[in-house]
Amino acid sequence: MDYDVIVIGAGSAALTAAIAARNEGASVVVLEKSPRESRGGNCPFAGGGYRFWHGGLKDVLEIVTDLSEEEARCISIPAYSADVFYNKVLQITEQRADPKLAEVLVTESTPTVKWLKAQGLSFELATRHAIRDGDRLKWKAASTAIRVKGGGEGFRTVLFEIVERKGIEAQYQTRAVKLLSGPRGNVCGVTVLGPEGFRDVTSKAVVLACGGFESSPEWRARYLGVGWDLARPRGTKYNTGDGIKMALDVGARPAGHWSGCHAASIDYSLSRVPEGEDLPHDLPRNECTVGILVNADGLRFFDEGEDFKAYLYARVGRQILQQPQTAAWQIFDSKVTGRLDPDYSSGSWITANTIEELAEKLGLPALTRTITEFNQAVREDVPLNYDILDGRSTAGITPRKSNWARKIDRPPFVAYPVGCGVTFTFGGLKINTRAQVMDTSGEPIRGLYAAGELVGGIWYKAYIGASGIAGGTVFGKIAGANAAGE
Ligand SMILES: Cc1cc2nc3c(=O)[nH]c(=O)nc-3n(C[C@H](O)[C@H](O)[C@H](O)COP(=O)(O)OP(=O)(O)OC[C@H]3O[C@@H](n4cnc5c(N)ncnc54)[C@H](O)[C@@H]3O)c2cc1C
User: Fold this and answer.
1) Closest Cα partner for 42 from 147, 160, 156?
2) Given Cys at both, which of 8, 229, 382, 479 links 451, Cβ 3.0 to 4.6 Å?
3) Distance (Å, rounded) from C-alpha 20 to C-alpha 379?
């Protein structure tokens, strides 16, 4: 055997698996398709938010340890229990999420963030999710409390430092193309295409952590459906479903919502950057809950207040993709612009002092009527409260806005053009709670493990913000440790 454990991919799930396997004393190699300068998968594109269960500020300060007492006194972070986390996974996936995998994701999220910290990672408060309330910094409901220090870029940097410090070898421009099977159907290595051509690399176990298929317009159109080839991937251009195909070729069981994905609302101009070119940066537009969304006909098309941002934003991209010109506008007035996250201070937007002026500037004659009808429909008899699903809805218009409906009547008014950004795909491989890949007869494939975005069976139709990195590292750690023990 060339190595004890081969890890395919070099995103956060893969590197976590490599570190966990190395900690068990295994010899490990990481095989990455991208060149070294683009290494890290979706990690460098990520905001770095990490969702875990906790009892509030006291628990958070065990992870974020560089705050002074004085700073901590001005922070309000509501508790986010494992029960709330778990029940929400089941609720927003319409009870389809694999309960065993969901339970592992949730219960292991906190031990894993502590383990990552013990490996050398640092975390900071995710202040982008907080709002100033007098002299206090108050976290928005359901938002994540922390992020990896320095965001996704910081995460990538430190993960590779740990990998290098532990003497884990990484090979770049090395694309895995086929899994090698042993006499008992076990997986015992992989064939790669590297700078020197094809070669076989052998091992006791292989961890597949090479992402989903969001970067392949062909797979997107085939599985997500007509029109998804027009969506713009937000992250790495290398996730084209290779790992999923290799595993299916050795009898793995497909699982999860193959026609589903995480698709957010992003700055319009980014959504038009030709696919295959690296995006200059990510620019999500996730605050539709405090405003309204209108399409190119000047009409609303979505319940912007259906749920808290963290539970809703990953569904908005799909709605925008179905609109004329696969585009839309987010519209806010000055009552709410203070609640917009920092991303809204970059990119492009249009302001106006009257709705009529805004309608003209956007070229949307129907907008005035849309906003007039919306304002007349707002139920002002219900108190506004952003910390709960306040039921302050609209009445008598379709689509309804279920919560936090406010008249759009205080200038200046601002409109942000948005498009659809696909983040990652939900469909993938069936695994058990040991992160072993299962075959089509329901048995584990010996020697084959999986973690991260190519795992199917947790997210269906919806996703909870900042659970991608948590999920990748939770199952990455399990996969690495078990692969080392193979
Ligand atoms: C813009 C953006 C923002 C995000 N923000 C957050 C956030 O704030 N919080 C959060 O929790 N999640 C976030 N996510 C999601 C998060 O990044 C991922 O869920 C997480 O990084 C797990 O990814 P992964 O390790 O499974 O896959 P990836 O990070 O995509 O890594 C897969 C790797 O496999 C490599 N690869 C592919 N095919 C092959 C092959 N054949 N051979 C060898 N290597 C191969 C790829 O090049 C890539 O490096 C964000 C994602 C994006 C795109």
Assistant:
1) 156
2) 479
3) 53
Nearest to 147 by CA among 46, 10, 277: 46
Peptide bond before residue 412 is cis, with ω within 30 degrees of 0: yes
Question: pLDDT tens across 29-56, in order?
Answer: 999 999 999 999 999 999 999 999 999 9
Residue ranges with strand state E in 162-315: 169-171, 175-181, 187-194, 197-208, 232-233, 254-255, 261-267, 292-294
Structure tokens at 78: 């509501």
> Which domain range does residue 374 map to?
264-421
- Same domain for 38 and 77, yes or no, is yes
Are 9 and 470 within 8 A, CB to CB?
no
Nearest protein CA to atom 50 of ligand 1, as residue: 46
Percent of the chain residues topping a pLDDT of 70: 100
Give the nearest ligand 1 atom to 13 CA. Answer: 25
- 313 occurs within a structural domain: yes
Q: How are beta strands 436-438 and 28-31 bridged, if at all?
A: unpaired
Phi and psi angles of residue 126, each rounded to the nearest 5 degrees, phi first: -85, 75
Helix (H) or strand (E) holding 445: strand 444-450
**Does 180 share its domain with 285?**
no
Q: Is the CB of 452 under 6 A from ligand 1?
A: yes
Spatial strand order in the sheet of 123-125: 49-50, 146-148, 123-125
Q: From CA 387, how far away is CA 399, in angstroms rounded? A: 23
Whether residues 176 and 44 share a domain: the answer is yes
Residues 446 and 398 occupy one common structural domain: no
Q: Is residue 250 part of a domain?
A: no
Q: Is residue 227 part of a domain?
A: no
* H helix intervals, 47-98: 57-63, 69-73, 82-92
**Nearest atom within ligand 1 for CA of residue 423:** 53
The pTM score is 0.97
| Assigned token pair, 288 | 């539709």
Total number of domains constituting the chain: 2
In a domain, 248, yes or no: no
